[in-house]
Amino acid sequence: MFYTKSQWRNFLKGRAYIDTYRCNGCGTCTEIDPEDFRINENMEKAELVDHEDGFRGQVEMAVSMCPKQCIEITE
User: Fold this and answer.
1) pTM higher than 0.85 for the full model?
2) Where are the domains positioned within the chain?
3) How many CB atoms lie within 10 A of CB 19?
């Protein structure tokens, strides 16, 4: 599995990660929670915004609404 730098930091901190192989870049997560997700324009996939103090938006809603179910909270 390939992780961006931000995804790897979040995975190691026990927060969340996005399976970039399953992500189709639809942007559902960024529409629901633009504070915590963005589209990586090079990969055309979703990625987590790295916040040192944890999530700021509606991550759980983004996880549940992802059509590919490629976002996991690893707490």
Assistant:
1) no
2) 5-73
3) 18
